C-alpha cells in the first residue's frame, strides 16, 4: 500500500511540470474563447527547431554508441508500431458506426510517432534527472514508418477484397511519402548532421538553449488545437473518443513491458524504457496526417486527426508521461 501511495504521489507531482502546464493552459484559454493565435509558419518553425535539436543530439550520440546496443530496442520499436496498427484494425475498425478505412487510418496515426510528445518527454525527464541513451530518440523512425506503411497496406488490402481487385499494393511509395514528411525529414536530417559532421558548437550555442522555451510555445499551440479538434470528433462515432483516451496508455504500457525486456537482456536504461513507452503512446501530429491522406484518401480526417489531436495527444502528454516516469521510478528505483 505504501509503495502504491508513493507511486501516485510521484505521478501527481509530474503535473507540476511547466511542459504540461502550457498544454493545459492552451486548452483552458481555447475553452474560454480566447482569440490568441500562433501563426502556422511559426508553429512549423518551432517543430523544425525541436526535432533538429533532438536529431543532432541523437546523431552525435549514435556516433559514440555501440550500435549492437541499439538492435533490440530498434527491433522492439518496429514491432510495437506494427502491433499498434493491428490492435486498432481488429478493435476500433470493427466497432459499430466506425468505417473500416477510418478505423485503420486512426490506428496508423496512433502507431506513428509524435515528435512534439517525444520532445516534451525529453524535457520532463531532463528536469527529473532521468538518464537515457541519447540515441533513444532515433528509435522514432523505426516505429513511425512501419506503422504508417502497415496501415496503408491494410487499408488497400481491405479495398481490394471489397472491390474484388487483384492489383498489387506498392510499398516503396508509402515509405517514400513517410520519409518526405516534414517532421521525419527534420529528425533524420538532424541525426545525419550529428552523425557525420561536428555540430557541437552550434548545438550547444543555439539549438540546446532554445529547446525548452520553444517547447512551451508548441505545447500552448497543441493545447489550443486539441480543444478545437474536439468539435471535429463530435461529428463521428463516439468510439473514436473512447479509443483515443485508452489506446495511448495501452500502447505505452506494451512498449514499457518490451523495454523492460530490453533492459534485462541488453542493459537498456530505465530512461530509455520511458522514452520508448512515450513514443509508443504518442500519435503523429505532423507527418502522419498528410501521409495517411495520400495513402487512404477515402478515410475521414475528422475521425483520425480529431481522435489524435483532440484526445490522444493530451492523454499521451498529461497522463502518459507522468505514468511511465512514475512506473519507472517504482520498478527501477530511479
List the helices and strands and how they pair.
Blueprint: H1 2-13, H2 18-31, H3 40-64, H4 67-89, H5 100-111, H6 115-128, H7 140-163, H8 172-179, H9 182-196, H10 200-233, H11 239-266, H12 270-281, H13 288-295, H14 301-332
Helix pairs in contact: 1-14, 2-10, 3-9, 3-10, 4-5, 4-7, 4-11, 5-7, 5-11, 5-14, 6-10, 6-12, 6-14, 7-8, 7-13, 10-14, 11-12, 11-14, 12-14
Structure summarized in a few sentences:
Helix content is 78%, strand content 0%.
Give a description of the structure.
With 334 residues, the chain is mostly helical. Helices cover 78% and strands 0% of the residues. The chain contains 14 helices and no strands. α6 runs parallel beside α14, α10 crosses α14 and α12 packs antiparallel against α14 (301-332). The longest helix is centred in the middle third of the chain and has 34 residues, at 200-233. The chain is globular, with a radius of gyration of 19 Å. The model has no long low-confidence stretch (mean pLDDT 83).
Amino acid at each position: 500500500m505504501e509503495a502504491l501511495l508513493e507511486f501516485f504521489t510521484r505521478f501527481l507531482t509530474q503535473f507540476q511540470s511547466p511542459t504540461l502546464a502550457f498544454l493545459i493552459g492552451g486548452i483552458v484559454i481555447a475553452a474560454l474563447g480566447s482569440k490568441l493565435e500562433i501563426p502556422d509558419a511559426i508553429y512549423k518553425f518551432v517543430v523544425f527547431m525541436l526535432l533538429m535539436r533532438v536529431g543532432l543530439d541523437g546523431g552525435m550520440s549514435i556516433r559514440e554508441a555501440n550500435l549492437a546496443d541499439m538492435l533490440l530496442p530498434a527491433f522492439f520499436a518496429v514491432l510495437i508500431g506494427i502491433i499498434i496498427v493491428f490492435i486498432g484494425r481488429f478493435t476500433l475498425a470493427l466497432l459499430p458506426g466506425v468505417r473500416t478505412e477510418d478505423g485503420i487510418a486512426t490506428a496508423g496515426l496512433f502507431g506513428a510517432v509524435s515528435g512534439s510528445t517525444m520532445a516534451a518527454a525529453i524535457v520532463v525527464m531532463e528536469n527529473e534527472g532521468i538518464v537515457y541513451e541519447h540515441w533513444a530518440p532515433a528509435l522514432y523512425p523505426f516505429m513511425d514508418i512501419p506503422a504508417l506503411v502497415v496501415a496503408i497496406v491494410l487499408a488497400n488490402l481491405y479495398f481490394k477484397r471489397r472491390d474484388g481487385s487483384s492489383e498489387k499494393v506498392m510499398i516503396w511509395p508509402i515509405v517514400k511519402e513517410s520519409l518526405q514528411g516534414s517532421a521525419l525529414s527534420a529528425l533524420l536530417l538532424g541525426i545525419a548532421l550529428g552523425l557525420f559532421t561536428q555540430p557541437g558548437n552550434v548545438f550547444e550555442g543555439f539549438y540546446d538553449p532554445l529547446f525548452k522555451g520553444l517547447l512551451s510555445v508548441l505545447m500552448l499551440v497543441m493545447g489550443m488545437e486539441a480543444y478545437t479538434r474536439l468539435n471535429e470528433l463530435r461529428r463521428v462515432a463516439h468510439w473514436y473518443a473512447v479509443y483515443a483516451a485508452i489506446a495511448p496508455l495501452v500502447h505505452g504500457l506494451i512498449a514499457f513491458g518490451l523495454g523492460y525486456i530490453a533492459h534485462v537482456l541488453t542493459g537498456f536504461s530505465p530512461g530509455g524504457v520511458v522514452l520508448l513507452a512515450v513514443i509508443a503512446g504518442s500519435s503523429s501530429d505532423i507527418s502522419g496526417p498528410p501521409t495517411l491522406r495520400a495513402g487512404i484518401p477515402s478515410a475521414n480526417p475528422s475521425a483520425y486527426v480529431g481522435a489524435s489531436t483532440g484526445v490522444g495527444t493530451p492523454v499521451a502528454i498529461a497522463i502518459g508521461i507522468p505514468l511511465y516516469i512514475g512506473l519507472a521510478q517504482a520498478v527501477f528505483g530511479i
